[in-house]
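1st attempt posting a full record on here, be nice pls
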Amino acid sequence: MFSSLQDSKNHITRTDARPAPVRRPAKQTFPPPGRGSRRPRRGAHADIITKLGRSLIHHGPYNDRIFLYHLDEADLPGITDRLRSLAEDRGYSRIFARIPAPARDHFVARGYASGACLPGLFRGRVDGYYMAKYLDAPGIDTAGIDEVLTVAREKARAGAVDPAIDAGFLAAPATPGDAPALASIYREVFETYPVPIHDPAYLAEEMQRNLRCFCILEPGGRIASVAAAEVDRAGKFAEMTGFATVPGYRGRGFAACLLRRLEEEMRLIGVKTAFAIARACSPPANITFARAGYTYAGTLPESVNICGSLEDMNFWYRTLAGSEAAPSPG
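the predicted structure (as C-alpha cells):
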C-alpha cells in the first residue's frame, strides 16, 4: 500500500465455510548488524524503500522479498543481477518487479515469470507486467484460486450491484486529519499488512503525497469504511487499495460504493488505468472488482505479508479513460 510502495492489498472477510488455504508464516529474521538499520525493527517498519542504481525498490525481512516498483531503463541490463545479489545477501526468497513491456524479455531471460499483465498500465499506452522470481518453491492452491475466480465471474455475469449506500450514510473524502481514525480501523481489520498502515503518521504523510482516501461516514459522523487510491501521476495509473470496513458494518456494499467514488476522482485527475491486488482466498474481495467491471490479470503466489501470513494475490485491472492509441506491448 501507499506512496511508492504500491503493493497494498484488499481485505474482506471470508464468508464461505471452507478453511483458508495454508499459508507460510512470514519470516521474522532481521538484517545482521551493519547491513541494515542500527536496531531491529518489527512489522512493516522493518522493510525499507531505497534506490538500486536509479531504480526504486522496497525490500526487507517482513515481506521476505525485494519489490522493484520503478525501473529506470538506464539500469538495464545489470539490474537483474544486482537484485539477485541483494536477495541472496539478505536471505530473501522472492523478487518481484513491476516493469513496462519492453523490459519483459530481459527479465524472462534472467529466470523471471510473468505473474500478471496489465494492459495499458503506463500512460494508457504501454502494457505493464508484474514479474516474479522465486529462490525457493512457493506453495499455491490453484484449485482454491480457480474456485474463487469462478464465483467472482459468475457474480459479475449476474449483473453489477448498485453501489448505493443506506440513507444517513455519507461517502466523503478523507483528509490527513482523519489518519488516527483510519489507522485505528486498519489495526482492527488487519493482523498484518505489507506497509505500516497502522501508523497514523505514515498515513498522514502519504495522504499529503499521492494517496487519495475516501470513507463512509455513519450518521453519527464516525468512519465505518475506508478505501484508497495510490496514484502514479507520471504513469497515469492508480492502485485501488486499503479497503477496510469495521466488522459491524460489513455486507452493506461500502466497498463497491467507495470503489466508484475513487474511480470518479481518478478520471478527474487524468488516471487512465486502475488496478487492484486482492487476496486470492477472499471471495468478497474478488467479487467486488469483478462486479465493478475489472478483468482478472494474473496471480502472484505468496507475494505479501497480510492477515498473518504470506498470501497469494490476484490482480484485477480496468481502463478508466480512452488513450490516443490502443495499448501495445512496446
